[in-house]
Batch of 3 targets.
Target 1
Amino acid sequence: MSDAVLEPKRTAEAPAQAQRPVPFRGGGFKPVERGGIGLIVFIVLIGLAEMGTRQGWISPLTLPRPSDVFWTLVEFYQTGQLVLNILPSLTRLAVGAAIGAGTGIAIGLMIGLFSYVRAGLVPLVAAIFPIPKIALLPLFVIWFGIDEGSKYALIAFGTFTPTVVATYGAVDNVDRTLIRMGQSFGLSWMSIVRKIVLPGAMPGILSGLRISLAIAIILLVAAEMLGAEYGIGAYILQAGSLYDLDRLFAGVLILSVLGVLMNSAVGWIERRVLAWRV
Amino acid sequence: MTKLTRRTALGLMGSAAAAAALPRPAIAQSRKIVLGALRFTSHSGSFIAYERGYFDEAGLDVELKFFQAAQPMAVAIASGDVDFGITAISGGLISLADKGAVKVIGGALSEEPGIDGQKILASDAAFQAGLTSPAALDGKTFGMTTAGSSFHYMGSKVVAAEGGSMKFKPLQKVGAIIGALKSGQIDAWSIVPHIAKPLAGSGAVHIIGNISDYLPNYQVTTVFTSANNAASENDMTRGFLAGFSKGVADYNATMIARDSGDAGVDEMVDLIHKYVYTDRPREKAAPSIINGTMRLNEGAALNVASVEDQLAWFQSEDLVSKNITLDTLVDSSYADMRS
Amino acid sequence: MHIRLDGVGHQYGAVEVLQDITLEIPSGQITCIVGPSGCGKSTLLRFMGGLEQPTSGSVTEVGAPPDDCLNAFTYIFQDFALLPWRTVAGNISLVLEDHGLGQSAVTKTIADVLARTSLSDFKDALPKQLSGGMKQRVAIARALAVNPAVLLMDEPLSALDAQTRELLMDDLVTLWTRAPFTAVYVTHNLQEAVRLGHQIVVLSRRPGRIHEIVEIDAPLPGRSLSDPVLQKQHDHLWQLMRDEARAADAELVHV
């Protein structure tokens, strides 16, 4: 190639070349914060349901009227039924999830730290992970009784496996250079576990906890299928068998709120405990 | 759920049986309808009418659709997937009627003096501790499938008559209730005699009373259809009830009156065994089918007084809306309404 | 106290990484180990601190560590190895906690090493708030806190940019001048070696053998590459290493 081609002559006789700005091609494909849209979608959908059920083009068999659901909730609260039903449910969630997540973290740490425990328990955990825990409910009733025992057991069992998997995964992912550093400074085994492995595994454990708690809420309804007089799950199941859509939606709404609250509680813990994260 | 169509049913019966079968008039304009059924002896009226072509005579091309429980059948009628069904009056059924979806049009099974009816059962543990008659039910736990089921109604009425109250444990499935009763997790329950008697025979549970002592003429199950069928498909609904009633009449005549003797009973058991206890050999199924014999309502007659009582109870328990009237639940223009 | 290596050799499976290393690490001096990548210099350092064991030969510590020494062989890592969830002071406190020193002694030691590394103002900062150079200063402070007999530094400046590297080299020289320490300094950077090393051990490419040991007599403070003697020594080292580095670069990676 000659220079002439590479460098066009900058002379006055040169034909005027068309000029235009370089076209922008970089837009789109990037999530942009659009505040309030989610809320509007909610309001529009609820408004449509309200209008449809009022004007009759949505039959009462298809959807309950949102305002009826709201008044059902108000009534639920005013009659004291809300407290009566939510306390046993919260107790079951708290006790079940505490047992399940607690043993899950303990076993997960053991798997992460000891090769023998890993070799012995990982296949077992893999085998029980996919079992639909609901299917074991009748068995739990025989083992732990029809009262609170079987409900705690179901929720504990359901939260146990994901916590174990999340915990030993988190332990495996702890920065090896940090452990080597601890060893090079002659730290005791216990100190390395307590001061390096455990805090290092905390992000993984907490994100596992997020999933476990959602599973706990799902299992709450299942746990209250058998022999529960009170409880949000029992309330939803009763509404379902009575085909009472107002109460059904009211109950489901309470569960959703419970889920959102638990999620933000974990988020709050994360912000406090994991402030060191980059 | 099992779908049984005319074609597969014919295929199953085989050529020999087909040769002996009653002639099926080929009606060109027969209407296709779907009949929901449970694999219970109490649904025999439907099976007989289907097998013996009584629906065809009424100009209906019936497809049987099987359900595991009464509740989904009621919902299937509400959604229009099933035209007719037979089930106990439950809170769910009343709620669906209130929403303008279903109507009760007749009776199927009721308690009757002189015929063995539903039994009240006690677990062995509770029995040993003194629960030997319904009078001792106060403070005990009673099994039920769900709140607002017929078990809930029966237990509640019995204990109220004895001047006490019980705790009701929802256990979703009959199998789960039986398990809980056998292991003493619940104290008491009530169920049809052909389930109650073998249980009591095993010694794990005890029969401590009869439902009919507390709820005479209790209308256990009813025939129902969609509100639309009841209101505007008069001919089809009448045709269905006519065919169904013929099946019921055959059943009562053969199994209770024994008009055609043991041979008739044998033939009837053969027919019913195609649908009920199909997982057992015939010789094992026969006693259960014969034990389960209860008189079905002739002409689909409905005991209105019992239905009214049930409705009132569901309302008093705040399980269904207080505004529901008997007319919302029952369309009385089709069958004999007794009170 | 010093370290003696006698006929040290090592194999990872079938791959021989080190061969017949016999070397004396003199007390109170900085020994730099240089060599092309993959020559086993970091492995050698792990042998000296007891984090790995050689397949043949012996590593011996000669003499006793000083009385107030808490961890005789103390590493400084290339990637700093600070606990991200602990503050600067917390990271230093970590290596003191297991020794039952008592709160006041720990606090005093922390304050002392932070002052020596000019980090006193960053006592309560988290690692994520610090630049790379500051992080490595914290790691150095942590190493000083246990009063080591030998500092084992594994490419401590490789993760830093050129300017920061210069500043930290000045810091190390100042620290050594104030209180001479024994150190083994592994690097692939000849400028660092010439600037900090009393003796420079040049390893060949894999399997690593001692190619040559160069002694530099010039006092640590005031060493500068503009000094023609040092420049000559740098060029000499580069001559030694260039061919090895080129050959090592052309080798297929055995993974």
Note: The radius of gyration of chain A is 29 Å.
Target 2
Amino acid sequence: MKTIKIPYTMLVVSLILGFLLTVQIRVSREMVNAPPLERSFELTSRLKSLTEEIEGLMEEKNSLKQKINLLEKGGKIAEEALISEINKNRFWAGATPAYGPGVRVILNNPPGFGNNSELFNVRDEDLFNLLNELKAAGAEGIAVNGQRVTALTEVRMAGNKIVVNTKAIYPPYEILAVGNPEQLKTSLENGIAATFREWQMEVTITKESKVVLPPYEQELEFNYIKPQEAK
Amino acid sequence: MKKLTEHLNKNKFGLFLVFCILGIMLATQFRLTRQMPTTFSSERAALLARQVEAAEKKHKELTKEVESLRQKVAKLTEEQGHLRTYQDTLTKYQILAGTLAVEGPGVEVTLDDAKKPLTAEENPNLYVIHDEDVLLVLNELRAAGAEALGINGERVTAMTEIRCVGPTILLNKTKRISAPFVIQAIGNPAALRNSLMMPGGVYDQLKDFITISIKTSENIKIKAATPPDYKYLKEGRG
């Protein structure tokens, strides 16, 4: 009887052994497939730092977008404002052509030659006094022989020539002024023109419905001046 | 089979060996299964890996986007550079138009009526300041390279008239200033001064009639003029 039981024990033992072997193999196979503990920790910390970096990038993206928006809007507004201011000031400065009603004054040296005749030739002071009269009579723009009169325009003798905006000009002198034609003409006729005529200079003043003034063409170069500091 | 059992039965040592192996395997199995619960399941690790992958993709996209936005900001900022050029141009025209308050080195020419007692034969009218005395000084300063002109702080613009009326000067239609008159010019102080002091020049022409003094200054301030309000003048050639 005993000898018969042994094979059953052996069978059971073998079965358990087989089962255990199978489980063992499967478990160890699974162990190899599954990432080790360190890898999972690494993944988690990588995910965490990635998420943080993404948040930072999102923030930066938004702030950059805002900045671009401001730059685009501000830049355009600033540019438009600047260009409009430049155009206005160019016009006020006399650096653009300009036109309007006004007067044309022709002034020439006294005719005839003889003793002392040159003494009464038109001089720089005659011209700048004339310009001053036109300004006082409300002239809004003036040109002398094609040279626009600006805040920095000189009218000055250089030898026996008159220089305006560093360019020599020659008689007859033609002065164009924009303003109220009647007022400009009357003011000259009742004042400085009478004096010029006494000196035998030739003066004609005509009212014009339109005179065209050329732009100031000197290079603007400032080396000493600067805007006053805003307080 | 019977032979084998008999053989094993006879060989108790074989059976002992089998149980030894069984014991070792059980022990190993037990240890392995104890280790298992502390590792992540493969699904969880895979999920993490997928999340990391997605995050990496997003990170890469954002980095690219931020980089291109940064370039755009740089480009726009550079473009603002030409705004500075516009601003410089504007300043130049404002200086010429007189619409900007300015300062700088230069000269101050002080004019006043003659202080000397006059004899009965002398015409007192000769010894007071006339429009043309002021105009003479202004004109000389312009020729000498003045960058801006003023009288007692008031800006002299292209259309500024000078009207001497008694002890006052009227200018810019509405401004009235009193003696002494200080004609201010911003520019190279030495050049401006030398030009006025030339022999036979402005100083020599005026000094016998009126009081004139010239001094250089490190800082002259001149106000802005009111922007013109033209009634007749229009821009262009019509």
Note: The mean pLDDT of chain B is 87.
Target 3
Amino acid sequence: MNEDIRLMKGNEAIAHAAIRYGVDGYFGYPITPQSEILETLEALMPWETTGMVVLQAESETASINMVYGGAATGKAVMTSSSSPGVSLMQEGISYLAASELPALIVNVMRGGPGLGTIHPSQSDYFQTTKGGGHGDYRLIVLAPSSVQEMADFVSLGFDLAFKYRNPAMILADGVIGQMMEKVVLPEQRPRRTAEEIRKQCPWALTGKTPDRKRNVVTSLELDSAIMEKNNERFQRTYKEIEANEVRYQEYQTEDADYLIVAFGSMARICLKAVEEARKVGVKIGLLRPITLWPFPYEAINNIAKGMKGILVAELNAGQMIEDVRLAVHDNVPVEHFGRMGGIVPNPTEILMSFTNKFGVKF
Amino acid sequence: MELNQIINPANKVYSRPALLSENTMHYCPGCSHGVVHKIIAELIDEMGQQENTIGVAPVGCAVFAYNYIDVDWVEAAHGRAPALATAVKRLNPEKLVFTYQGDGDISAIGTAETIHAANRGENIAIIFINNGIYGMTGGQMAPTTLEGQKTATTPYGRRVDLNGYPLAISTLLAQLDGTCYVTRQAVHTAAAARKAKSAIKKAFQNALAGRGTSVVEIVGTCSSGWKLSPRASNAWMEENMFEKYPLGDLKNADVEK
Amino acid sequence: MLKNKEIKMKEEIVIAGFGGQGVLSMGKILAYAALMNDLEVTWMPSYGPEQRGGTANVTVILSDEAISSPIVDSYDTAVILNQQSLDKFESHINPGGTLIYDPYGIHRKPTRTDIKIVAVNAMDATIELGNAKGYNMILLGALLKLKRVVSLDDVLRGLKKALPERHHHLIPANEAAILKGMSLV
């Protein structure tokens, strides 16, 4: 057995991966189903090894603002929460985006609205991809569908966040957070030195030296003409991200008559449905968006050409389906399958949905 | 005597602090913010901390503090300055980290962040300007507005049965184990300003030495909000504000130990 | 059915009972044993307040190929420890599958005729062993004997990996409970 392979929950994988990435600080508040992230970090005591700061804050509001403060100094900082807590963070997320700060936020979604349930859901898709806070901003959104991706997307999320100076979110759900799978953790990287931060983040608050003007990290600009220019700059960044960072995965789409589009845990369940359908000769393929923003509009449009129908399967009442419909411009019938309130469907329900929506016989 | 004989470096007895920028301040005549900014700029310079300081600006009248004092700054969301400062200091433990907050910021919307940062004993200095009113938004009631005081949202005077009591947040913060130094000062006279300066210096020293959270409350005036002349504002402050918010140290761990 | 490159294997197992009976940790040990045997594995618990006395269940899937869904609606094997779980899962066992249950507290016995049903008096055996914490290991022993998805050796190595060093002294007691469970079927 490969000694590097471990068995752990998605939440635990996030914690381990954060330490190994060389994250400088984690600030969070407990909420089911993601509390293992903070618990694991506290148990691993990374302040003794890498020097990473771990702090249980007094609220999600405080957590995200600690992230804001830390990010302003050029440090790699992150927080995690679940849906109700992430709602509370929206103010801070908007400020992070407006101040062009890199940071990583993890949302292990549970069913809402309101306090809702602690069980898995994907009903924060709109909030995450369309901007849950105020103003014209975008989050880079990564949707892991395995424990391995929970670990991998910590690095990817930070790399993208720093590359574009924009906050990134890992949008997982209770299934991915709570399930255990095999995972290979990344190599331990050193935390960046103060010198590296000065070099890589000339905008960061590192102390005003005679060779530069004071750095001010702010989202405030009362001169509307300048504020519009700021917005135009944000939009240029978003265009660049849309052009370069779309990620998705295809499974057996080449010969498929029907396509399922699903992300996160639903993509896993749908993959099993694809396997079962193909056993009885029904050719279904699966497209799994990995980045929910930027969304793979073009890929879906190209892949779905000539297909008989698309089923968008989500743990919500129908959110990503709007993007899939935008992608295919009404050229292919698009139907939705969803469960809500924390109910996770099984693969058979997906197949039954094909019968109900498209008259497919199995 | 000719003017250029008077304007002569040899005659110079006072100059703008090196770290106070030449930007025209947006504060109203008679406002206390300008004096406190000057004190902070002087101290950072005198303590040789310019390259080592990170300020956290609030939402309120001092929202543009970063335009005036020549150090690195981050502008917080309303009330969140102590949360930002917590992370800035923990991730950069060698830095001098201070927040600059008004009464709404520290004791209304940001009460939780303030109390918890102070209770954790974060090694930061909190500079708190208490003028009993919301200046920036046009003179509405603050948590610290006095009973009977007229504001835009208490046009007939603050009534405790409707609006609750004036909140002495510093008195509360002094009760917390995490604070090492809590003091209430003013800047309405030269003598008061000198005392305020030594208080802020002590707070900065505490923050650098890792002694816990220091809070320096400056009871200040808001001529525009109070609708009084600067001179009358000082008199009104001495007569009314100092009764509810008496000046002096509320906690000084050095002395107590 | 020990891993053999020639034979494809996949086993979908549900373990269900009351919170506190060791349902999740039994699944975890099984999952670690699979890890030691180089199998793919998913462990998907019900989570939340169930952990504190309500019903709890965990789905463990072992396979020598990548596992698609960690959530399935029918199982090759069910290990059932209370009546509610029996009522919930009996109809979800694949024809030809296996149902292992502890008859203690079961008033409505399973009725399927197209599956293998094995009653394991684990509660009695636990009392006999005098190790209250061995209950779930007795059932795991029964499962290992009946299904051979992983070996006892894999389980013991898995326990070593799963448990912190300070708990390694508990491994012999666990082994004894597993052996006891094996002897019951």
Note: Chain A has two domains: 5-184, 249-358.
